Model the fold of this input.
Amino acid sequence: MRACIQQRFHQLPHTCFSFLHPPRIHAYTVANVENPYAPSREDYAYANVFLWNTMIRKQAENGDITRDPPLLYYIQGLRTGLRPNGQTFMYLLKALVCGKNVNEGEEVHASVVRTGLASSEFVSGALLGFYVANGFIGQARQVFDEMPQQGLVLWTLMIRAYVCLTLPGEVLELFRTMRRVGVMPDMVAVATVVSASGLLGDLGVAKTIHCFIEKSGVEVDAFVSRTLINTYGECGSLTDAYRFFQETAMKNTVVWNTMIHQSLEHNNLDLGKQLFDSMPERDVVSWNSMIRGFANVGQYEEALALFHDMEISVFRPNTLTLLSTLSTCASHGALEAGAWIHSYVNNDLNQDGSLDSSLIDMYSKCGDIVKAIQIFEESPRRDLFTWTSIICGLAMHGHGKKALCYFSEMNESQVSPDEVTMVGVLSACAHAGLIEQGRRYFQSMEKVFGLVPKIEHYGCMVDLLGRMGCLKEAYDLIMGMPMEANEIIWGSFLSACRVYNNVELGEVAARRLLELDPRDPWGRVMLSNIYAEEAKYDRSMGLRKEIKEKGLKKSPGCSSIEVNGSVHGFLVEDNSHPCYNEINSTLEKIEKLMN
Done:
């Protein structure tokens, strides 16, 4: 960078800074010496420093500081005899933050000290901000400590720096020092300290700072209110967050939204809905929070109903709304509703293809893989998310070979996969029975792509090996896993043992399942079936008897169907549907016609 500045300096035409040349100023002043209203030499010097600062500031704002470095203009100004002021250094440091030029920043720091401006709170604040932006918290603290008298602005900047670098312990220690030396924080400093206690997750500290706010008389505005609610929520106390929300007089829409968000984060959907219904004014964030809240707890019908309510309100859904709603349709299997949202998206909300990955995922999970492929092929955006969505969608539908073809294209496009992509790839191998490719892709995760296999990837490999009858290899893989196998992996392995009637390994898998969840009858049922296949009826009946005596019941199966945009779910032996009698009557008529 330094060499670049020197090179550009020599390339600049001499006339670039001719208006800053002192002899010209002096000549103009002498020529007007008899005019009592003529500007003084000091006036011209001030005007030229202002122009100099403006040039540096404009270069920083233009953004291309490598082609025309602001430091170059600074050096040229010094050579023409100009003396920098506080604004000069503030503009310079701001420009160097944008370019991440640490060495040049240190040179400017040295110039600040030489010119005697290190005692300026604003210049020191700019230096502190420069070092923090580049990750040098030690140098930032040194700048702070060397100030002969730290004002409130500098204290607040240093506290905020520690918060930005997620160092809550240092924030609280600095706040104690601040109070000890008699500096009274304002609402900005207080809100910053409150957020630090949230990062720490210490409810006691949060309450102590809240108590200080009330006793000190610091003004509690909407920003402080929002921060306190968030902090209590992050410390795990929704009760304290809601109590403060009820007590505070500063309730704008942002504060309401924060309280709704914390309610949903703590899975208190009833409180969130109550707050949403009580809001004096809603905005798009309010609607998005509630739609996402319903979707997160599996209440997909309510989420879709809320989306339709939003449509007829004065607020127009944005990209985040559509992302949440498409995810809801995908989870609920609501193809008709998802297709309608797709037509809504096509207007002007997806010109850059940012929603394509969600659309692909929705169509895949709702059963229309042909439409998912069409969207992918027409998408202007081929990023990690769109590639991953189509690969996982094809794997889900059993099109393993096609999924692997897309994965090869993805690699050729130099888009690196992530952990989710590799789950799709390994799942595709399992569905297509491609055992050699599965082994190769699993081994390549760490060696080629630098991805450490997680439990989901081991689960896919166990499923693949189990489907292909390689039970001993699957068992060895489970036992060699760096983490404990969960119910899904042991359940998958037990299913494979059931298919290939391997009693010995089936007993091991069933025993592990019972250890993980003694109340789940599934493992006993599967092992009972294995015994029955091997004509070991005593053991089979013993397990069935044990299930009955302990009152263990399997989770009922569920099916769903979408009619006129509404999804209807049905459980085994469930008669709670409002149209239960009509459905049964229709089924009886169909049965008679078939007979």
Residues 1-46 have pLDDT under 50 and may be disordered. Residues 131 and 138 are 8 Å apart (CA to CA). The chain has 33 helices and two strands. Strands lie at 558-563, 566-571.
